Amino acid sequence: MGKNINWSTFLAPYQQAVDELKVKLRGMRKQYEIEVKHSPIELVTGRVKPISSILDKANRKGIPISEIENMIQDIGGVRIVCQFVDDIYTIVELLRARHDFEIIEEKDYLKHKKSSGYRSYHVVVRYPVATIKGEKFVLIEIQIRTLAMNFWAINEHSLNYKYSGEIPVDIQKRLQRAAEAAFQLDEEMAKIKDEVQEAQWIFHQHKSNTHKKGGR
Ligand code: 0O2
Questions:
Q1: Residue 137 lies in a domain
Q2: Distance separating alpha carbons of residues 111 and 94, to the nearest angstrom
Q3: Is the N end or the C end of the chain the one with fewer CB atoms within 10 Å?
Q4: pLDDT, tens digit, 9 for 90 and up, residues 132-176
Q5: Based on the structure, what is the number of domains in the chain?
Q6: Domain that holds residue 92
Q7: DSSP code of 80?
């Protein structure tokens, strides 16, 4: 890749890959719904990193432009959010069993949380995109986290942006406490997981019966 990068051409396969993965992962959630089983996937989002963030990251990590497609693993990113911590590992198994991409790296920030307090499971995949010029492989980072982890990460990310990575110490301390609270929330919910799932199943049955009777 030359220095004068054509960003539209470069980013198009990433957008294609993110869009395809969103459809596929939402399809998995639908299958659980049809089988009236608890879905480990609650919601799926995705994005292509803005050009300015790609350049910032390359700069910060000393990555030459010619190497960004090999060395920046999250130019394309997909996020899977789930209800319970166990769901994360179920999703990882589901991803490992697929043949439409190759997993090239896994990072378990649950077992090894980051010093910021960040928890999540990252799976980097090499995804084939069919382009008019043939097959093109792109790296996509799939982040898997609970709703509680997501709430924390979104807020911490906003603060990091606001303070350009230099969050004041008092806010950092609050974030650490919030990370601990999010961890406790996940732990408590895990203990009543069966109860919650049964309640959700009853609600689902009630909804589909009402639907069959023509209700809303
Ligand atoms: P975005 O798109 O703004 O979210 P690094 O990015 O240097 O921390 P590395 O090795 O490139 O780390 O990859 P890693 O650890 O998989 O992290 C990549 C992404 O994970 C980040 O992307 C975040 O989305 C998320 N992440 C990692 N650490 C933290 C953290 O401490 N707090 C929050 N809120 N998110 C984190 P970017 O580059 O920040 O981009």
A1: yes
A2: 19
A3: C
A4: 999 999 999 999 999 999 999 999 999 999 999 899 999 999 999
A5: 1
A6: 7-214
A7: E
Token pair listed for 11: 């980013």
Residue 138 · residue 129 · CB < 8 Å = yes
For a mutational test of ligand 1's pocket, the pick from 156, 157, 158, i.e. the residue with the most ligand atoms closer than 8 A to its C-beta, is 157
Within a domain: 2: no
State the catalytic residue, choosing from 33, 69, 93, 141.
141
Whether 158 is covered by a domain: the verdict is yes
pLDDT-above-90 percentage for the chain: 82
Q: 85-141: per-residue pLDDT in tens? A: 999 999 999 999 999 999 999 999 999 999 999 999 999 999 999 999 999 999 999
Q: Is residue 1 part of a domain?
A: no
Ligand 1 midpoint to CA 24 (Å): 24
Which atom, in ligand 1's list, is nearest to the CA of 109?
A: 15
Q: Give the distance from CA 177 to its chain's centroid.
A: 23
